Prior knowledge:
By secondary structure, the protein is α/β, with parallel strands linked by helices. The protein is built from 30 helices and 36 strands. The strands form ten sheets. A seven-stranded mixed sheet has the order 13-12-27-26-25-14-15, with helices on one face. A hairpin with a 2-residue loop joins strand 1 (18-23) and strand 2. The two termini are 51 Å apart. Mean pLDDT is 92; it is low at 1-8. The protein binds iron/sulfur cluster (SF4) (3 copies) and FE2/S2 (inorganic) cluster.
Amino acid sequence: MSLIQEIDYGTPAATGEMVALTIDGMAVRVPAGTSIMRAAMEAGIAVPKLCATDSLKSFGSCRLCLVEVAGRAGLPASCTTPVAAGMVVATQTERLAKLRRGVMELYISDHPLDCLTCAANGDCELQDMAGAVGLREVRYGYAGANHLKAEKDSSNPYFTFDPAKCIVCSRCVRACEEVQGTFALTIAGRGFGSQVAPGTADFLASECVSCGACVQACPTATLIENTVIETGQPEHSVVTTCAYCGVGCSFKAEMRGTAVVRMVPYKEGGANAGHSCVKGRFAWGYAAHPDRVLRPMLRARITDPWREVGWEEAIAHVAQEFRRIQHEHGRAAVGGITSSRCTNEETYLVQRLVRATFGTNNVDTCARVCHSPTGYGLKAAFGTSAGTQDFESVDHADVVLVIGANPTDGHPVFASRLKARLRAGARLIVIDPRRIDLVRMPHVQADVHLALRPGTNVAVLTAMAHVIVTEGLVHQDFVRERCDEDSFREWAAFVAEPRHAPEAVQTDTGVAAAAIRAAARLYATGGNAAIYYGLGITEHSQGTTAVLALANLAMASGNLGRPGVGINPLRGQNNVQGSCDMGSFPHELPGYRHVSDAATRAIYEREWGVALDADPGLRIPNMFDAALDGSFKGLYIQGEDIVQSDPNTHHVTTGLAAMECVVVQDLFLNETSNWAHVFLPGSSFLEKDGTFTNAERRINRVRRVMPPKAGYADWEITQLIARAMGQEWHYTHPSQIMDEIARTTPAFAGVSYTLLDREGSVQWPCNEAAPTGTPVMHESAFARGRGLFLLTEYVPTDERTGPRYPLLLTTGRILSQYNVGAQTRRTANVVWHEEDRLEIHPHDAEQRGIRDGDWVRLASRAGETSLRAQITQRVAPGVVYTTFHHPMTQTNVITTDLSDWATNCPEYKVTAVQVSRSNGPTEWQERYRAHTEAGRQVAAE
Length: 941
Ligand code: SF4
Ligand code: SF4
Ligand code: SF4
Ligand code: FES
């Protein structure tokens, strides 16, 4: 590993003043504040080092980087000593060489000499430095006290800690603090007895969240990935993008042949700058899991066993069935569902297949059930259906408002950046029914936490607006110059009504008026204020209204159009933004242009050579309604497990059961495939080229690191279906699909794989006006011209508590699992979360005689399930909470079919429930388990 590339120490002073000095006889000019080590690097001089690394602040403990400075006594550490004008530095003298050899000798004398068999051989900085300082012999031997027999800690499923190899450089401790912000590690003991300690026990039992930053920072084999121990050092690498969440972290997939050895977060990654979470770095083993289905399968009835067939037969069957259904039941009797897990190019092709080949707009996406209110609300207020900032923007925020999001679990790499900003002094407002980690954790504490009753976001946000307007906190200049004045006047009068005062809503919302006032004042007057929100805003019957309320707050306080401010939806899945951009909604062509717009239709009619329907098609829940009516019979589902992820499971499964041809394209037989007639094996993100668009609108390249295990990438399968249905599609590479997207979609006009390969990533809009993309939107004007204030009348949800269902259930994700868990449940991440649990307040538990770990029955008007209880004060009395990662819980059996008034986004976050003790899984769950087992049988050949 090159030493030079690794060195990057000392933060240049903000003044930009340049300092001239001499290093090893060379004249060097660097910004004031630069360390001598960094300045030497700029001059091409490598100074030996061990405790310094480019992602961490200089520490100065190893004493290997000592240098001589003319006229100065002693030998300063070059990593911690800043340059000074006229300084004359020597880095390579005989005296220094001797000292460095002495330091290295001490390290090596307490280090196993098993380099040839060590897993880090060839990738070990200690080994490199021993060579760099010319150490040839160790005089002390192992005679004295040493650590060579220290016990390994193999408790973490992904990495091993071997303290015998530790040089106590504390890079791991600093990485955990500075990069990850978890503070799980310390250096315990003193002097010779110093050692790295993960809490009081082992890594698994500690506060460690397995982000791997310490493993990456370790210069020796002390902390090392188990996959490297098992398979050896990688031989080559490919830069690609994580396929889990909407942060969109870039990774170097380090490979041996076509096998992944490890995923290393990419330092040049625009979204993650070299950091990652446990999922992206470690939980990729599902791609090679034996459960992967690698051959297409067919069956006539959903009660039949599956029959493996060749690709040709499967594709011909799909084409034939869809044409038969259309012939018998009409063109609109079929449709498709795109996936936010798939690439932009794949999603674009599915909507093209449905619109141009099926000839209907019956296409929808899983974003329907998560961020569709974001698209609708932000488009109405600002003119663009997307977040306004890049992640880097949070570094400039003075106040951060987190509402309905749990970044440390849901968007962990962004959370690390946010925590660093909070540790640096930014203020924090959390609005969430649950006491999420950010409310109080090491070195982070919210200034205000509004633990509102689920379902009352709009009342709280409108009350905050009331405070801003009635206390004279409106940013008048911003509103006058940037916003629609009539709408502002009407809105200001509306929110100023006494019924919107914090005092008037405190009973309904459960939040003290003083706390709402404090939050509003802090948000409006604390400097740059940024809003980050998640599904706790959108998945409500007033999801769109809440998004509008956030937009109103940001406009009224002038917090838009520059770094440090803005409205930032934290997107759940890796490509939610992209799947929406690509025209996955039944009413919108790519780029959010309505299907009724003749000019837009004409663009695609020319491109695709077919006439397009001007009427919006069916949304996902309406597809099931139509199936139950007998008018919808065929569905192509790419990479989406709607049975598990959509509300009202009974409605979904009866709808699917009423169809004649359900095609599921996925990696694994999932819950939806229990109701499918055709299974087409999909490809993982490692097996294809394409792009994902993250929550910042950042288009990242996905690069194929191995061939598709089942033969085809997902975009190729869609193309095969289109061709079998008579279409002339001739894409040979996803770059051609992106070229078509760029040709037809103004916000993507400048995007190409050539540009992405050159820039690394770009944020749309990317066009002639912004050739390398747009990190911050609406800088001088809103996309729609003037920002529009819209009224946000609070309408309580119809889902009310009462004597039968006295508690409110709300749901969310946990760090180690991902959504329906199809991938993460097939990795060692299950050690952290092997089942969904119901969080319940001690008071509610006691009333019901429930003890921690007891099985409980969770019942709502919609249905019931059983799971185990976890008693905790994270939830307030009257509120219970669970995750939805495990199919046996089927949390969506409980959720109702209430949905957002504008977008049909389901009201997952509010369900009135009752909780009582039970003896284990319900009869329904046992039946479901049996049905799943039967649904997975494959007939012997
Ligand atoms: S894996 Fe991450 S959280 Fe765990 S100790 Fe290392 S840096 Fe800290
Ligand atoms: S575990 Fe690695 S990074 Fe941590 S102190 Fe030891 S050698 Fe340094
Ligand atoms: S934060 Fe999200 S994108 Fe990044 S590594 Fe974790 S799951 Fe992947
Ligand atoms: S690298 Fe400077 S003291 Fe360790």
